Every structure is written in structure tokens, then in C-alpha cells.
């Protein structure tokens, strides 16, 4: 098809946060011609990244982003009056981190154009827009503008959360991070060795209307005064910037609004900050999306399969995260009558967040899986706790393993397994994990009908 633009990109990505940057890097690796456009973040913030996020960065060869990570701390939690240590996490100063990701994308040979993206339209067989007076056209458009992406495709929304935060300066100290509950919500703080602390207060967006700019500081200080631990953390510090407000609730938008258009990261699935791994989720989703887009562009016969795969993945993540969040909110029992807690302790439903394995119930089915950067149909094992099916555990395809076990008349002795693994691509440790996975579900003798 004739293109009116001088630069017919395969994929144009608006928004260069973790989702847009990792997507660009993976698509470029697949040999697609990618343009990444973005503006700098509106304000700086300090966030926590767990080891899973670090693994995603390593898998994407993001050396600069890895080098930008701050100290590793143990996230302390004070919840329902109990004090306990949570996950370890790296403190991430987002302005530095996002700049480093932009650099990583450049080093991966992604074409980049700094600038604001407004309206993108489908015209004459391609997506078209203008960024910094430069006309852009592409076969595929991904919106990765985070929570600033237009909200017109919202499918589900948790009770809204208002996040009010600011930076404080105190004396140089040991780095730390933590969350604390209080009657009207919860707070997250993170402290850098140079004494800068970020303190964010999260409250219900229905009962707490955002105050005017002029009243924001006193409103923020009043919220801190309601939470003894928050007040103690900043008592010898002074405010470095005026507080800001961020919409922070869990929500989920149509991830594939059209055949050549997707939403990535927060634009598709924005997490409740309580989850503490929004960056990881955004990056992991982008790595999946890269295979889906490549399939849509290179293998049109599997395009619908790829679209459904991505839609299902986002849908399932939303419900899993919604129910996991509900379970965590239920652990706070001090203020059941306060609207912040009562609105979250029963939403979205009463279904378990992690369905338990049901012994002996499972079947072999054909389902789409992500393999070698494409989405393809494969035989998988589906059971009540993994209804979309599991294709591999470790690096071992379950159905092939079941066939091997069947041929041997049962699980072979360890030395036979080791001899088999030595002559195959399957690491012994992964085979052990796959056998355990099947044994826990009493599925070692599962056959396809
Ligand atoms: C209060 C709060 C606390 C959080 N704490 C944590 C935490 O501790 N740990 C964690 O892992 N996650 C945390 N998160 C979640 C995390 O910030 C997001 O999940 C993550 O940043 C999503 O990445 P993204 O790339 O999808 O979006 P973003 O990071 O929002 O990136 C979007 C990018 O698009 C750009 N952009 C926006 N509009 C335009 C436009 N019109 N044109 C061009 N570019 C544009 C933005 O400048 C930005 O660079 C928190 C979120 C909130 C709200």
C-alpha cells in the first residue's frame, strides 16, 4: 500500500516509560523497524523494584537502567498493628531510570524521537501523526503513555485511589522503604542514603476529593498527621517540593482496541501501588506483547490467535491482581467500618485469588502459547488452577514429558532420567520441577483423548 509518509515504520510506540522502552527493544530484536516517542516524566518519584523486575531488565539487556538502580532495601510493612518484613526491593528514582531506559533503547538501535504525541489516526492504510512537526506513519501503533493514555477504552476499574506525595529532605541516613496502614488508607515511604525521603499517602478517591492547588500542602500534612509512623519518619525533615496528586487505582483497558493497535503497560493494566510491582508488570506485559505484534505482522494466519492471547493475558492478570489486593486489604482488621477499607475488602468478588490445584482434574488441550517470539497453538495441560493451560515448566514441555513417562511405564528412576536429560535439551533440575508440578496435581498419567 502506498504510504504518504517518508518513514514507514513497522511499529510506532507513544510513551517511553518501562512498557514502551522494553517493547521497543524486543520488537527491534525481532527485526522490526520501530519508532519510540515520548516526553520526560511530569515529576520525579521513588519506586521499589523487586528481583523479578531486575530479571526483566537483564533479559532485555538494559545495562543503563540496571546501573541506575538505587540501594536494595527490605520493604517493612506495618499492617493491622503487626510489623513484618516484606520483599526486598531496589529503590528506583524514576526520572533517572526512565532516562537510562531511553538510552538503552538507543543502544539497541531503536529510532527515538523526543516529543509529545497527541492524536494518532488510521488513514490510508497506516497510523499517522505528527511529533515535533515531524510526520510519522507506521503499520502498527502501541499506546504506552501510562495512566495519561486516553481513558476511552476502560473495561474495569477498582474503587479509585488518590495518591498524594512529596519529597522531603532530612539528614543522611540508611536507606529504607515501607508501607503503613491508617484509618483513612495507607502510606508508602522510601528513603535514600542522602536523606531524601518520598512519602506518599493513599486515600479513597470518592470520599477524598482532590483539594485545590492552594490547599494541597495543608491537606497532605494533615493526612500525614493522621498516621503516627508517617509523621515520625518525616519529623526531622523539610518539604523539598510542593505535594502532587496521582490517580492510583487498579484499572484495565481494552488491550487490543483494533487489529493493528495495542495498549501496553499502565495504559492497558494499571496496578494499585500496594502491589509494589507495577514496573515489572508493565515490562513483562510488553515482552509478551512483542511476540503478539510480531505474529500479527509476520504471520497473518495467526493474527487473531495473537490478539486473543494478549487480551486473555491482560484480563487474567487484572482479576488475579484484583483478588490478591482484596486479600491483602482484608488483613487489615482495625477499621472495618471505614470506607477506605470496607470498599476494598470485598471487591471485586469472593473468588479465590489463587485457585488451589484439584488432584486428578486436568486435560490436554490445544491452546496458544508464546514460543520463539511467536504465538502458536500447542498442546498444553489445563487444570483448575491454570485454566488457560500450562505448556512448559522450567524449559520442559509438559505434554512431551508425559509422553516420555507413558513410554517408560511411569516416572523412571533418577539415573535413567539423568541419562535421558544428558541426551536432550531438558535440564535435569527442570525435569524434576515439571514432574513435581504434575505429581502435585496427580496428573502423571494424564493422556490426550
Ligand atoms: C503513586 C504510585 C506509586 C507507585 N509505586 C510503584 C512501586 O513502588 N513499584 C513499582 O514497580 N511500580 C509502582 N507504581 C507503578 C508504576 O509507576 C507503573 O506501573 C509503571 O511506571 C508503568 O510503566 P508504563 O511505561 O506503562 O507507564 P509510565 O511509566 O507512566 O510511562 C509513560 C510514559 O509516557 C509518557 N507520556 C505520557 N503522555 C505522553 C504523550 N502525550 N506523548 C508522549 N509521551 C507521553 C510519560 O512521560 C512517560 O514517560 C506506582 C504507581 C503510582 C501511581
TrEMBL record:
GO terms for molecular function: oxidoreductase activity. The keyword Acetylation does not apply. Gene3D superfamilies: 3.30.9.100, FAD/NAD(P)-binding domain. Its EC number is 1.-.-.-. Keywords: Oxidoreductase. The keyword Oxidoreductase applies. This is FAD-dependent oxidoreductase LodB. It comes from Granulosicoccus antarcticus IMCC3135. The lineage of its organism: Bacteria, Pseudomonadati, Pseudomonadota, Gammaproteobacteria, Chromatiales.
Amino acid at each position: 500500500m502506498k504510504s504518504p509518509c517518508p518513514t514507514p515504520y513497522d511499529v510506532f510506540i507513544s510513551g517511553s516509560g518501562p512498557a514502551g522502552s522494553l517493547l521497543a527493544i524486543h520488537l527491534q530484536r525481532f527485526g522490526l523497524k520501530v519508532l519510540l516517542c515520548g516526553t520526560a516524566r511530569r515529576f520525579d518519584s521513588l519506586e521499589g523494584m523487586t528481583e523479578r523486575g531486575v530479571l526483566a531488565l537483564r533479559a532485555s539487556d538494559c545495562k543503563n537502567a540496571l546501573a541506575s538502580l538505587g540501594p536494595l532495601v527490605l520493604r517493612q510493612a506495618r499492617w493491622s498493628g503487626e510489623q513484618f518484613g516484606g520483599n526486598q526491593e531496589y529503590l528506583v528514582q524514576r526520572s533517572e531510570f526512565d532516562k537510562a531506559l531511553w538510552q538503552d533503547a538507543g543502544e539497541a538501535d531503536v529510532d527515538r524521537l523526543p516529543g509529545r504525541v497527541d492524536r494518532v489516526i488510521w488513514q490510508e492504510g497506516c497510523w499517522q501523526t505528527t511529533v515535533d512537526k515531524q510526520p510519522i506513519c507506521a503499520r502498527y501503533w502501541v499506546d504506552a503513555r501510562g495512566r495519561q493514555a486516553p481513558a476511552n477504552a476502560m473495561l474495569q476499574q477498582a474503587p479509585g485511589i488518590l495518591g498524594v506525595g512529596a519529597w522531603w529532605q532530612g539528614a543522611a541516613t540508611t536507606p529504607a522503604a515501607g508501607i503503613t496502614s491508617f484509618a483513612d488508607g495507607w502510606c508508602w515511604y522510601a528513603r535514600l542514603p542522602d536523606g531524601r525521603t518520598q512519602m506518599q499517602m493513599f486515600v479513597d478517591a470518592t470520599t477524598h476529593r482532590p483539594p485545590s492547588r492552594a490547599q494541597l500542602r495543608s491537606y497532605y500534612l494533615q493526612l500525614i498527621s493522621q498516621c503516627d509512623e508517617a509523621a515520625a519518619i518525616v519529623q526531622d525533615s523539610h518539604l523539598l517540593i510542593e505535594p502532587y496528586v496521582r490517580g492510583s487505582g487498579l484499572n484495565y483497558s481494552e488491550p487490543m482496541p483494533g487489529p493493528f493497535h495495542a495498549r501496553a503497560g499502565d495504559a492497558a493494566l494499571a496496578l494499585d501501588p500496594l502491589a509494589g510491582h507495577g514496573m515489572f508488570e508493565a515490562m513483562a506485559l510488553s515482552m509478551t506483547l512483542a511476540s503478539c505484534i510480531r505474529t500479527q505482522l509476520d504471520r497473518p494466519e495467526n493474527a487473531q490467535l495473537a490478539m486473543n492471547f494478549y487480551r486473555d493475558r491482560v484480563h487474567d492478570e487484572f482479576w488475579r491482581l484484583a483478588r490478591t489486593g482484596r486479600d491483602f486489604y482484608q488483613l487489615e482488621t482495625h477499621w472495618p467500618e471505614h470506607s477506605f477499607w470496607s470498599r476494598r475488602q470485598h471487591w471485586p468478588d469472593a473468588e479465590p485469588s489463587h485457585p488451589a490445584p484439584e488432584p486428578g482434574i486436568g486435560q490436554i488441550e490445544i491452546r496458544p502459547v508464546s514460543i520463539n517470539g511467536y504465538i502458536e497453538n500447542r498442546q498444553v495441560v489445563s487444570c483448575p488452577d491454570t485454566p488457560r493451560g500450562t505448556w512448559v515448566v522450567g524449559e520442559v514441555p509438559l505434554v512431551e514429558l508425559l509422553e516420555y513417562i507413558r513410554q517408560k511405564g511411569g516416572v523412571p528412576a533418577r539415573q535413567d532420567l539423568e541419562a535421558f536429560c544428558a541426551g536432550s535439551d531438558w535440564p535435569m533440575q527442570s525435569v524434576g520441577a515439571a514432574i513435581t508440578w504434575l505429581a502435585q496435581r496427580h496428573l502423571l498419567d494424564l493422556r490426550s483423548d
